[in-house]
Amino acid sequence: MTIVPERTQYDLLFSQQAQRGAHLSSILVDLPNEKPDTISLAFGDADPHVFPTREITASVHGVLTEDVDAILNYAPADKRLLDLVQNRLERRGVAVNPSQLMITYGSSQVLGLLPQILVEPGETIIVEGPTFLGAVEYFAAAGARVETVPVGPNGMDIDALASCLADLQRRNIQPKFIYTIPTFQNPTGTLMPASARARLVALAAEYGVLVVEDDAYGDLHFKAEMLPSMLTLPGSEWVLHIGTFSKILAPGVRMAWAYGPPAVMKRLRAFKSESDCGTFVTRLVSHMAQDGWLDRHIGMLQSHYAAKSAAMVQAIAEYFPADVRTNIPEGGFFVYGYLPNDLPAVALNDVAIRRGASFLPGTTGYANGQGTHEMRIAFSFQTVPHLVKGIAHIGAAMREMRAKNS
Question: Is 357 helix (H, G, I), strand (E, B) or coil?
Fold first, then answer.
């Protein structure tokens, strides 16, 4: 009797979308093979030292003493959390219509739902390059054809976007949406100026394309004041804004929100099949945020991550060769680097891991294979001494590679 491998058996059952998703996960994400004692500067995890553990514990107790029967049963999201998000948007100048606001299980839930309501296999979307590849995997798994627009010092290159849109129009191709992280972009850390934001939204309105504004890092600014959300700009009826509590409370809380055009929000709600996010966690977040605590906490986070960023930038200046270019972030979690031709990122990362540190090669940020001489270095998770030590290891790996090459 011939035994058919399990993988082959189940391949006959999987949908095309599921098969595409597995394929993407295996070829697009070139994650480092780290040792247990590696100082990982690869991943943008939040710093657990600033998790509001005491406040979470107190709020859990407070919430459970309010109305435990209702809180632990089926129920809609706590209205106070919706009011909190509405207030935060209004403070940024957004004229909020509550019917256009939805609470979600993390921003990734919205990114996963978007291709379900907007993309048929073979249709086109536009993303930044590099960008958050977790989002691109959702889009590509749905069968989207991904057009990449480069990221420059000021975020997405709007001239290149204009050319891309014009070219697609000449070919009678209607892109479904433009995915952008304009504020402290992942992975480059760039900040898109107000003028570029306005032009991007104007182009979207001109061509009838939805802009998906992912604002995961917007609260974590070190120097610059918060720039306007695209929801405040002319043409904002073409903007879907996504925000999250992951970076300002804790990623494990899994609370985020989406705000956008009524027709888009109606369909997102329809495909969010598990309905509301429930009372317990939504009430927990709103309970913690009361009396101005959340604003004070965000202020602490800004100072904390600014100090870690400065320590990494200083270490890079000390340990990296002068021809390695890196940005100096004004917010967020990442420093992005551009390597000379003799230091390919994947090979360099292998050497760095042997020395005890790792980073994320730039190829993980592109859907089209670019980024071979780029690197993302996260300062968010490690302590300052470990950040400095990790940068020293990577710098030593650069010198080792150059010595071998010469």
Answer: strand
Higher pLDDT among residues 352 and 7, named by residue: 352
Nearest-5° Cα angle at 329, 323 to 335: 55
Identify the CATH number of the domain in which residue 99 sits: 3.40.640.10
Query: In sequence order, which residues have a C-beta less than 8 Å from that of residue 241 and are 6 or more positions away?
Result: 89, 94, 213, 215, 229, 230, 231, 258, 259, 260
Closest CA to 43 of 148, 157, 133, 154: 133
Domain with 162 in it = 67-288
> What global pTM score does this model have?
0.91
Is the same domain home to 203 and 116? yes
Tell me the pLDDT tens digit for each residue of 105-137. 989 999 999 999 999 999 999 999 999 988 988
Distance CA 237, CA 150 (A): 25
Between the alpha carbon of residue 325 and those of residues 30, 38, 191, 317, the distances in Å are 22, 24, 17, 10
Pairing of strands 334-338, 374-378: antiparallel
**Could you give the number of structural domains in the chain?**
2
Which position has the token pair 């402290």? 184
Q: Please tell me whether residues 78 and 173 are part of one structural domain.
A: yes
Instruction: Kindly state the DSSP code that residue 277 receives in the 8-state scheme.
Output: -
Degrees, nearest 5: CA angle 272-274-276: 85
For residue 9, is it within any domain? no
Question: Of 288, 314, 336, which residue is a domain's last?
Answer: 288
Please choose, from the candidates 208, 180, 209, the residue with its C-alpha nearest in 3D space to the C-alpha of residue 196.
180
- Name the nearest CA neighbour of 336 among 41, 47, 134, 45: 41
